[in-house]
C-alpha cells in the first residue's frame, strides 16, 4: 500500500476517525483558545481607565484598532496559504504560525505600548500562516473518504468551539478579575502547548503537508487538467496596487485617529485621503474582477457572479455579527446589570459550573481515547497535552472556587486564600464578567449545530438565498432585542443597568444566524467555482470577510457619536434595520441567483 493513501490513517481510529484528526482537534482547540481569549479582552483593555490597568482610549480609537486587527487577520490567510502551497508546506506553516502567535501573546502580556503593537502584528501573521492550513491537512486526510468528511469536520469544529468557549471564559475571567497580562499570557501558554504537541506528533500525518518538492509539484500539476487563464502583467499590477493600498489603509486608519492626524500616510490626498485611497483600491479590484469574469464561458461566469453575490452579503453579516467583541462587550461592561443576588446568584453559579465542568469532562474523555491509540508512539506529545489539561482543570476549579467564595457560599481560611491567591472579601458579591456573554456563542453552536445540520439534510432544506435571508433576519432580531433593552438609556449616558436577558437573547439569535450563513457560504464557493479558480475565489471570499471585519470596527467607532446624539438604542436599531434590508434583498434576488447557479444547491 502506498504511504500516501488515506487507508493508513484509518488503521488507528478514535470514535471511528483517524487518531491524526484528534491531534489536529487539540492543536486547533488551543489556537482558538488563544485567539478568542485575547480578542475578548482587547476592546475592554483599550477602553478601561488607567487606574484599572487599561489604556483609557476612546471607544472610537479602540474600535478602529480592533477592526484593522481582525481585518488583517483574514487578509493574511492569503499570504499564509500561498507560502504553504508553494514554499514550506502545511506543517511548517502551522508551526511558524503557532510560534508567531505564542510570541505575540507573550509580547501583549508585557503591556507596554510597543509590546502591544508588536504583539498584534505577530498575531496577524501567525494567524495567516496557521488558519488556512489546518483545514487543508484535514481535507488531505479524507480525500479518498468523502463519506467520512462531514463527520470529520463536525468533530474538528467542535474543537474550534471548545477552544473559543474556554479561551473567552478563562482568559476573559483572568483579564477582568486578576489582571490583563494574566489573560493575554494564558492565551500564549496554550498556543505554545498546541504547537509542541502538533510538532511532536507530526509523523502521524504520513506525507501530508510536507514541504513541496519537484515530484509533488509535478504530481499536483498532472492532476489539474483544467484550462488555465493566467494573470497578465497588468492584472498582476492591479492586484498588487489594490492589495498594497488596502494594507496601508488598514494600518493608517487607526494610526491616523490614534495619533490625532500626526501619522497619516495618505495626507497628500487631502482631508479625505483615507477614503479616496480605499475607494480607489476597491474600484481597481472590482474592475479587475469583472474583466476576469468576461474571460470564462457563460456558465462559469454566471456561477462566479453568484459566488460574488454571496460574498457581498457576507460583508454585512460579519460587520454586524462581529459587534460581539466590540460594541456588545462595551454594552455588557458599561450598560448591563451584571450583579446577581439571592436565588439568581445560585442559579448562575450552578449553571456556570455545569457549562465549565461538563465540556472539560467530555474533552478529557476524548483525550484518554487518543492516549490509548497514540501514547506508545507519541509519548512526549501526549504528556505535553496532559500537562495542558491539568493546568486548564486547575484554572477552571480555581475560578469556580473563587466565584463561590466571593458570593459567600464557600468558606476559606486566610491561609487557603493566600495559597490560592484569592483576595479576601467582607461583602458577598456575584458579578458576571462582561466577557462571559461571548462564551454563549460557542455554547449555543455546540447545542444547536446538530439541529441545523438535520434541517439542511431534510426535504425542507432552504435555498442559498433563503438561508442568507433567514440568517440576516435572525441577526436583525438579535439587534432588535438589545435595542429594545437599551430603549430606557438616555442620550449621552456612559453607564446603565439593563437586564442581562437582552444580551443572552442577542447571542442566541446571532448564533442561529451564524449557523445559517457562515458554513453555508464557504460550501458554495467549493461547489460553484472551477478547481483552477478555487484559490483566487477563496481569496475574494476572505477579502469580503476582511472588509466585514473592518466594517464591524467602523460601526463600533460611531457608537459614542450616535449614542450621545440619539441614544444607544438608536445605534442598535440602525444595525437591525441594515440586517433586515440585506435579508429582504437576499430573498428577493433568489430567482435571479438560482438561475445563475445552474442547478447547484
TrEMBL record:
Chain segments annotated as transmembrane: 62-83, 90-108, 114-130, 151-175, 181-200, 234-252, 272-291, 303-321, 341-370, 377-401, 434-456, 468-489, 501-522, 534-555, 570-593
Keyword annotations of the record: Cell membrane, Membrane, Peptide transport, Protein transport, Transmembrane, Transmembrane helix, Transport
InterPro entries the record matches: Dipep/tripep_permease (IPR005279), MFS_trans_sf (IPR036259), MFS_Transporters (IPR050171), POT_fam (IPR000109), PTR2_symporter_CS (IPR018456)
Membrane topology value: Multi-pass membrane protein
A Pfam family hit: PTR2
Superkingdom per UniProt: Bacteria
Protein's name according to its UniProt entry: Peptide MFS transporter
Family under the similarity heading: Belongs to the major facilitator superfamily. Proton-dependent oligopeptide transporter (POT/PTR) (TC 2.A.17) family.
Entry's localization field: Cell membrane; Membrane
Keyword check for Repeat: no
Amino acid at each position: 500500500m502506498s504511504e500516501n493513501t488515506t487507508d493508513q490513517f484509518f488503521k488507528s481510529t478514535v470514535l471511528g476517525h483517524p487518531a491524526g484528526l484528534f491531534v489536529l482537534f487539540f492543536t486547533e482547540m488551543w489556537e482558538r483558545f488563544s485567539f478568542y481569549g485575547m480578542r475578548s479582552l482587547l476592546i475592554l483593555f483599550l477602553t478601561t481607565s488607567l487606574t484599572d490597568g487599561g489604556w483609557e482610549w476612546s471607544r472610537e480609537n479602540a474600535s478602529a484598532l480592533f477592526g484593522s486587527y481582525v481585518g488583517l487577520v483574514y487578509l493574511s490567510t492569503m499570504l499564509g496559504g500561498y507560502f504553504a502551497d508553494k514554499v514550506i508546506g502545511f506543517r511548517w506553516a502551522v508551526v511558524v504560525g503557532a510560534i508567531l502567535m505564542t510570541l505575540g501573546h507573550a509580547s501583549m502580556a508585557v503591556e507596554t505600548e510597543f509590546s502591544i503593537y508588536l504583539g498584534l502584528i505577530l498575531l496577524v501573521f501567525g494567524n495567516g500562516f496557521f488558519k488556512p492550513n489546518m483545514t487543508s491537512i484535514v481535507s488531505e486526510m479524507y480525500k479518498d473518504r468523502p463519506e467520512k468528511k462531514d463527520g470529520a469536520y463536525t468533530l474538528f469544529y467542535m474543537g474550534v468551539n471548545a477552544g473559543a468557549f474556554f479561551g473567552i471564559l478563562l482568559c476573559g475571567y483572568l483579564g477582568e478579575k486578576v489582571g490583563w497580562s494574566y489573560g493575554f499570557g494564558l492565551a500564549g501558554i496554550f498556543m505554545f502547548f498546541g504547537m509542541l504537541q502538533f510538532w511532536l506528533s507530526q509523523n502521524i500525518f504520513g506525507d501530508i503537508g510536507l514541504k513541496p518538492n519537484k515530484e509533488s509539484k509535478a504530481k499536483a500539476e498532472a492532476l489539474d487538467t483544467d484550462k488555465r487563464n493566467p494573470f497578465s502583467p497588468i492584472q498582476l499590477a492591479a492586484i498588487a496596487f489594490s492589495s498594497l493600498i488596502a494594507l496601508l489603509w488598514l494600518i493608517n486608519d487607526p494610526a491616523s485617529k490614534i495619533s490625532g492626524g500626526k501619522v497619516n500616510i495618505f495626507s497628500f490626498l487631502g482631508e479625505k485621503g483615507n477614503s479616496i485611497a480605499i475607494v480607489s483600491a476597491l474600484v481597481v479590484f472590482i474592475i479587475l474582477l469583472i474583466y476576469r469574469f468576461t474571460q470564462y464561458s457563460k456558465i462559469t461566469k454566471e456561477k462566479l457572479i453568484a459566488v460574488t453575490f454571496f460574498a457581498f452579503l457576507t460583508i454585512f453579516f460579519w460587520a454586524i455579527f462581529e459587534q460581539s467583541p466590540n460594541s456588545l462587550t462595551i454594552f455588557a461592561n458599561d450598560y448591563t446589570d451584571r450583579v446577581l443576588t439571592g436565588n439568581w446568584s445560585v442559579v448562575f453559579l450552578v449553571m456556570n459550573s455545569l457549562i465549565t465542568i461538563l465540556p472539560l469532562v467530555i474533552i478529557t474523555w476524548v483525550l484518554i481515547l487518543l492516549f490509548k491509540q497514540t501514547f506508545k508512539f507519541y509519548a512526549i506529545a501526549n504528556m505535553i497535552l496532559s500537562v495542558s489539561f491539568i493546568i486548564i482543570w486547575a484554572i477552571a476549579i480555581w475560578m469556580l472556587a473563587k466565584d463561590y467564595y466571593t458570593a459567600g457560599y464557600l468558606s476559606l481560611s486566610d491561609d487557603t486564600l493566600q495559597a490560592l491567591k484569592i483576595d479576601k472579601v467582607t461583602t458577598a458579591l456575584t458579578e458576571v464578567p462582561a466577557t462571559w456573554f461571548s462564551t454563549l456563542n460557542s455554547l449555543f453552536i455546540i447545542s444547536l449545530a446538530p439541529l441545523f445540520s438535520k434541517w439542511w439534510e431534510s426535504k425542507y432544506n432552504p435555498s442559498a438565498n433563503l438561508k442568507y435571508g433567514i440568517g440576516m433576519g435572525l441577526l436583525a432580531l438579535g439587534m432588535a432585542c438589545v435595542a429594545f433593552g437599551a430603549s430606557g438609556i438616555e442620550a449621552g449616558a456612559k453607564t446603565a443597568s439593563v437586564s442581562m436577558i437582552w444580551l443572552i437573547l442577542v447571542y442566541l439569535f446571532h448564533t442561529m444566524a451564524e449557523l445559517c450563513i457562515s458554513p453555508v457560504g464557504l460550501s458554495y464557493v467549493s461547489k460553484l467555482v472551477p478547481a483552477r479558480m478555487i484559490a483566487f475565489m477563496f481569496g475574494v471570499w476572505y477579502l469580503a470577510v476582511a472588509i466585514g471585519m473592518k466594517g464591524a470596527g467602523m460601526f463600533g467607532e460611531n457608537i459614542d457619536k450616535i449614542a450621545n446624539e440619539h441614544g444607544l438604542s438608536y445605534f442598535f436599531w440602525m444595525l437591525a434595520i441594515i440586517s433586515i434590508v440585506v435579508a429582504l434583498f437576499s430573498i428577493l434576488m433568489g430567482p435571479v441567483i438560482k438561475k445563475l447557479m445552474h442547478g447547484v444547491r
